[in-house]
User: Fold these one by one.
Assistant:
Number 1:
Amino acid sequence: MGKDEGSIKAVKKILLAITFLTRLPFPIPKSISPDDMGRTTPFFPMVGLLIGLILVVINYALSYIWAPYIVNVLLIISLIVITGGLHLDGLMDTCDGIFSGKDRERTLEIMHDSRVGAMGVLGAICIIVLKMVFLSAANPGSKMAALIAFPMLGRFSMVFAVSAFPYARTSPGLGSLFVEYAKKRYIFWAIVQVLVVTIPLLLWKAFPVIVIVVAFTWLLGKWLTNRLEGLTGDTYGAICEITETMSLALISAIDNVSSM
């Protein structure tokens, strides 16, 4: 395969990743094969970078109009709009299933149900509120870095989960295609993207944040796998949402500790 052809395929996969993970009006390639879609996984952090840059622009524009706490609320709402609530939907389904107290098979059935229960609603409310709180707690000088870093780290966690853990369902689902083509090296390429972007932004703070995110993602993925004998598309969304929130918590905590 020539260099130009490889570049074209990479661009195609990035576009597919963007159109899958967001509602941004990017052009969709005319011919899409399962192989093309399944191999978009290592480009997920690049989608997070794009989302983060959009949030930075929104923050910059709205900061001239409203107070920071209002801007932070609008930023989290903007994130939901940009992603179409895809990951939040997965979080709600996961909460409904995991906290139902039922056995594995019934838990998977509940997660597959399109209806949202009380635990799903409560889970979504908690995540949204925590994101707003932790974003507001971040040092103003670190806000731009946080806005770029947390969507990247959230999507890195999805790459980790897809590549490191088995798929729970026997029937095809939204996440099965990515697992089918996943390779362990995707984790390496994803973490390289995160390091290249976050180190210049967060400096030394990037290292503890990334180490904790990697460890936390493994622990969360392991816990869910023990519960469900694997992961699903819904749990990938839940892992993304929880990791995003934890990333903001870590950045704001480090800011506060280092300023003492």
Number 2:
Amino acid sequence: MTTHCPAFDLPDSELLSEGSATIVSAHRERIKALMAQATQPNPDTPSDPREAERQQCYESEPYQQLIQDYPVDIHIEDRAGVPVEIFTPKNGIAPDNKNRLLVNIHGGGFMGGSRTLSRLESIPVAVLGQIKVISVDYRMAPEHRHPAARDDAFAVYQACLQDYAPEQIGVFGSSAGAYTTAQLMVHLQEQGVALPAAVAMIAGGAFRKVGDSMVYGSALVKAVTGYDLNSSKDAYFEGSDRNSPAVTPGLSDTLMAGFPPAFLAASTRDYLLSSVIATHRKLINLDVPAELHLWDGLDHIFHCNMPRLTESEELHQRTVTFFNRHFAASSAP
């Protein structure tokens, strides 16, 4: 049964940290301007949409703030034939982290995020954690289909096992990257490869079913930006069996029970909140150690879009603390 609700005005949450409402308002205005700009022809815009995305990202105020607040060295190379970005904090790697590594699987709806969201996700974690982060620049739609992203993440993870023990590796991702992280845990079990010490799934989880948050969250996105999420074609999963655990990991109790300790995080206006909550519930019911962290009044991947929010730094710091705790536990005598 569908319940019909009247339209209503949604004010900013009074629970946002001091100054956050101003940052959120500025972000929304910037997004509106970018959406309007996207409809206007610009001869200076690169014809390659991903190159255009990178140019737009690097010139943006959030990215400039990010590299100012979190100084890192960025190196691009190939691992197992897959392009990766390596982030090393300029203030050095902590002594305890010399033999530890975090692998990032970036967000972007399986169509974007290459060398953009990968940086917005990885840079703060590398600096706050004083640890090396490798981000997988995986294949995406429209050129590629599932399981391209998972397979690229698998290849990079296996290559990392040549230099790092599995109990000293953590895997994290946001949105599409969170979903691919869950798929990777399934694939590692199926291939008999050792799993990492822990995983973090942020603004996404192990389910692709439509819950409450997709309904109200997509309505909010359309109200703020004019973009209709329901009009998006899910090209990456075209032809995939959505009922297979390889595609939707949350459907298999057996495989989900094999997950390592998990950190899940989202915000109340995130259209993928329902997936995060359902994933946490599933893991807890299966006795997998899992944490759930929620922030009020913020949108999908707020930690990427607004790096100077107090809530964003909290999320990054909690991610770092989570991995440090499980690295230490796995290396204890």
